[in-house]
Every structure is written in structure tokens, then in C-alpha cells.
Design brief:
heterodimer; A: alpha/beta; Rossmann fold; 6-stranded parallel sheet; 5-stranded mixed sheet; 10 helices; globular; disordered C terminus; B: Rossmann fold; 5-stranded parallel sheet
Chain lengths: 381, 150
Amino acid sequence: MFQAQKLEALGQLAGGVAHDFNNILSIVDGYARMAEKYAEKGDETLLNYLDRIRQASKRGAGLTKQLLLFGRHKMTENMVIDLPRLIQEQKQLMEPLLSNSIKLVIDVEKGLFVECIPDGLAQILMNLVINSRDAMPDGGMIKIIAKKEDPETILLSVIDTGTGLDPKIADKIFDPFFTTKEQGKGTGLGLSMVYGLVQDMKGVIQVESVPGEGTSMNIYLPFSKKGVITEITEADGTIRFEGYTALVAEDEPDLLLIVCRFLEDAGMKVIAAANGAEALVRQDDYEGEIDFLLTDVVMPELNGLKLAELVQAVREDIKVVFMSGFPANGTLAQVDIPDDAILLAKPVAFEKLAAVLKSLLDEESPDDKKSEALVYEIKNL
Amino acid sequence: MIKNRKRLFTKLKIYEKDPKMAEPLNNLKILIVEDQHDARALLRNMLAELGVTQIFESGDGREALQFMDSASDFVNLIICDWNMPGLSGVEFLRQLRSTGADMPFLMVTGRSDMNSVVEAKVAGVTGYIRKPFSPKQLEAKLRIIIKKTS
């Protein structure tokens, strides 16, 4: 109880600080951006320094985001999340944080659904993994386990082979600003934030630690029965996209209808837009996550490329597929399609579309996408 | 503060049109209301980058109201900071709307808690954008509110 009160008071303070801090950060970031413009093609060293400033301000922005989360200034609504999928996605973000001497092992069961703020769960994982890393200066192993503890409960554990916790401080670790890290290395906010987030998810966090052998952070979360069925390949080979959302922008009404109908039949939630500008507005009005953007390339007012660029600026994780009536390498050269873009030639063959969407979901690392341009040419429907 | 009052409004330099823009944003006549000088300068630069050529600035909500009273024809969109000493962004918006001015209003904020959003919506905000934002994110917001109000 006392813990909750303390956290609440600090949350309010943190929220206030975060706000002012964001102001400052946007100024730092903005000037660095501008300076980069002036320095373009000039001094490499200068550009490098400016880039570092921007990286640092980005880290700062990440921190304020944490502070805001900590202060329960909720940024998103609760959603049903496929935990194993989220862990796999986070793996890409976690790996760069770990040195070569640390092995990250992921052992997750399929189909574990929890109701939470997706961002929050990602924050929990990040914080726990960073703590584990810092407890293992000489290397070791971090294991992330997610499994069904009983029909009602999911257990998410982050286990390390690090130094373990001193029993004397075990009851303090969730206190805000409590840290064992050196000055400047840790804020002491990580675990208290984790604590708050777990409480928000109606979960329980528990620590097991043996000094010198390692620590296991166990989080028990309620299993969500609202679990979405993610994509399933049916017996006849058709792919289902239950639980996914797509934004479709196409100025040819019939084609829009056809594509939307197809996606809906595959179980997807579809947001249809008759042109680029409308699509931009629709995605702004939509609170939930959007997994795909399917867009025509040539549209009046706001073309598909610009649309993709702007939507990706506000929804970083959205996967973009362009649909175009032009042959893949002829006239289309007029339009400057990015190298990593996926382009489907019209008429869009649905099996192909489904396969492309599936391949996008299966993509382990976003870097794979950049390796080569994926161009699917469909001669006949 | 006093310095601000002396030079009420300066129409800033007319920026060159950027021919690379998709649908140009250069029809926009934007008033920036932001108390922090640096933040204002940044916003002005971002807007110029997006091809906006007509930009007015104010560092104070009351001044901005005065300006809108006499020169509302020169402005068709307002970008305003939430947190300002004196007249806050929401208060400025409320008073502006009470004069019948109905141009799109983009609120710049460092917070995104539900209460603030509701408060801004009730006061008649067209859209809001959270700091820090990139020029692309600003462009997306501008295009969204233009479309919404067109």
C-alpha cells in the first residue's frame, strides 16, 4: 500500500519533469537536425558528432517516455497481445544491447495472450534484460521464458547467471531511484516502472535470487481469454490473418472493395480509404495498432509513396506494400520506389498478396527487408 | 516579455517554394504561438522545410489573441504550445473559438494523458502533436488536419 502511494506521488512528479524535458529535447534534436542540413557533404567529423547528438537526444526521449509510463500517463490503451510474438520482436532490440559474452536464450510457448499496453510489456522486457546484463560483467546467459503456469496464468521469467541480489536490498529494488549501479549508469527507475506496469496488467512480480548464482524475475500475468487467433494456414492452404489490421488506400473504388473484401475474408480488420489523404486521416483516427499499409502508388493529392513515408513517420512498425498498375520495371521507374519497398503489380493476385503479407510477418529481422527489393510480378490473375 | 511586446508581429521572411513537395503546403498561412524562442525557431524552420511560406509568430497567448482579432484573414492554421506562462494553449484556444474563429488548431504538447486530450478536444482543438516530433511527423499532422477540415 505504502509502496503504491510512494510510486503515485513520484509518478506525478515524473510526469511533470518529463514534459519539460521533452521540450528541451526537441530543441536539441531540432538544432542538430538543422545543423546537419548545413553541414551536409561537408565535414564528416562534424556530421558524425551531430549524429551522436541526435542519438543522445533520442535516448533522452526514450527516457522521458519511460518517465511518462512510470507516471501512468498512459499513452495507449490496453490490448490483447500475443506474448511470444512480442518477445520475438523485442529480441532484435535486446540483442544489440548485449555483449558477445552474453547469450540470450528465448524459450516461449505458443499462443500466450495477455491484456496489456504493448509498449509497457516491451519496457518490462527491456528493463529486466538490461538489469540482467549489468549483473553479468563477465558474461553469462539470459533466459527469457514464457509459459502457461495454469489455465489462468502466464509466467514470464527473465533469468540470468549474474551476481545475484544481496538479500539486504531485496525489498528495496522496486523503490524508485533505488539503484546499485554507478552514478550515471542507472536512474533507479527501471524496476519501479516494471513494478507499476505489472500492477497495471493485474499481475504479480516476484524475485528469486541466489548471490553469486543469478537472479530470476518472475512475472505472473492473467491469461487473456480474448486471445486472438493469429495467422493460421488452413487445410486448403489459405492463410488466415485473424487479429491483424490493414489500412488500404486505393482510388479505384472497385479495386478498393475487392482488396478489402479479400482481406476481411482472411480474417483481417480493414480500414479502407479512397485516397492517400483519407488514409492518413483514417490511421490518425484509429487508436489501435495497424500492421499493414496497402497502397496504390499513383493517387491524386497524396501519392502512395508520400503516404507511406508519412504513415511510417507516425507508425514505425507498419509494413508497407505498394500496389501498382504499372509494370514493375517499365513506366514505374518514373516513380521513385524505395529500394526496400515491396511492390505488387496489378492485377493483384490474392494468393500472392497473402503470401507477401505472411512473409512480412515472418520476417525475423527488419534488416532482411533491406537486402533486396522484393518485386512480385503477376502476369495473370 | 517586454521585448516581445515591443515588436508585436513580424512577418518572417518569405521562404522559397520547395518544388519537391507532393501536394504543396504553401497555401498555409500559419500562426505559431509558443513562448520559448528556440522552440519557435525550430518550428518555423520545419515549416519552411515543408514549403510553408507564410509564417507568423507570437510568444504570448494574449498577444496572439490581439493579432487574431485584427488580422485573422492572414492566418488559416494555428500551431500552439500547450504550456505557456500567462495564457495557456487551451485557454488561448477557448478564447479564440469564442470569437468565432474556426480555423484548424494544432496543439503542441509534451504530454498525452487522457485528461489533457479530453480538455483540448472540448476546447475545440483540431489535432495535437507530441514533442519531440520530426518534420515528417509534423507534415503528417498538418496534412491530416487540412484534410479533416477541408
